[in-house]
Design goal:
Radius of gyration: 19 Å
Order of helices and strands: HHEEEEEEEEHHHEHHEEHH
Shape: globular
Helix content: 25-40%
Strand order of the largest sheet: 1-8-3-6
CATH class of the largest domain: Mainly Beta
Strand content: 15-25%
Distance between the termini: 29 Å
Largest sheet: 4 strands, antiparallel
């Protein structure tokens, strides 16, 4: 298959940004393009993991079946996201989550064998991978910190403030539906909607999904007992982009392409 577009997407990711184009070409030569209709599975939890994936277009939902038979959604993946790289280094190598198409989508499928071989023969490639994994460990610590905040209102406001710092705008583009975000923040969808409505009535936020606008960030933080962010963006950053990387359980390199 022709690979220039794939190589460009790989080069735009944090994990492969320092990898030479020659090695990305080797990785891309073994790729194939898979097309799924909405609802179709890319892989299921426990399946043998021989490939990792790059979402070219559409969306994919990562979830894990619970003991009650429900599906716990961990994240909705978007175009440009990498899936299941971490799983490639496990032995035995099996997918830790299930992946289902959230919409019609096209996905690059890249073989595990080529990834491992490049790690064996190229120290620079291996270091780039380790840098990406270290970043995701930091993000996981931030996620744990967020999810252990005392109550659901604080978790929601902390998430909105992180989106604000990440997007550097009072207009917040929510990356997923209310239901998905609620589950990621360990809040019931009903509580999530009720709290947003309360914040809206109090004049702290405005707008309608998928966009919200922060009308009074200081007041919103004060309402739930959290410190307000630096509104000038000087010396502050999002918590390693928590807003776009919550529950990256089998993904540790979100693409930079198209996500300014």
């Amino acid at each position: 298959m022709k690979t220039p577009g794939l190589i460009q997407m790989l080069a735009g990711s944090s994990i492969f940004a320092r990898v030479g184009k020659d090695k990305l070409q080797v990785l891309a030569e073994g790729a194939s393009l898979v097309r799924l209709e909405s609802g179709q599975h890319l892989f299921r939890m426990g399946d043998k993991a021989a490939y990792f994936f790059l979402l070219q277009a559409g969306s994919v939902v990562l979830y894990r079946p619970s003991y009650t038979g429900e599906q716990k959604v961990f994240r909705s993946m978007e175009a440009g996201d990498l899936l299941a790289e971490t799983a490639m280094f496990a032995e035995p190598c099996r997918y830790p989550l299930s992946a289902r198409a959230g919409s019609d989508c096209s996905i690059y499928r890249l073989p595990r064998a080529r990834l491992l071989e490049l790690c064996r023969v190229s120290p620079d490639f291996s270091i780039a991978m380790l840098e990406g994994m270290a970043t995701r460990i930091s993000q996981s610590l931030n996620r744990i910190d967020l999810l252990t905040i005392g109550n659901s209102a604080q978790r929601l406001v902390a998430y909105l403030m992180d989106l604000y710092l990440q997007q550097r705008s009072a207009w917040l583009a929510l990356p997923a539906s209310h239901g998905v975000l609620a589950r990621q923040l360990n809040i019931t969808p009903e509580t999530f909607s009720r709290q947003l409505s309360a914040f809206r009535r109090a004049g702290f936020i405005g707008g309608r999904p998928p966009e919200l606008v922060l009308l009074d960030a200081d007041g919103l933080c004060q309402e739930v007992g959290l410190p307000a962010p630096d509104m000038t963006f000087e010396g502050t950053t999002a918590m390693d982009h928590l807003g776009s990387s919550l529950f990256d359980c089998c993904n540790y390199a979100r693409q930079a392409l198209g996500k300014g």
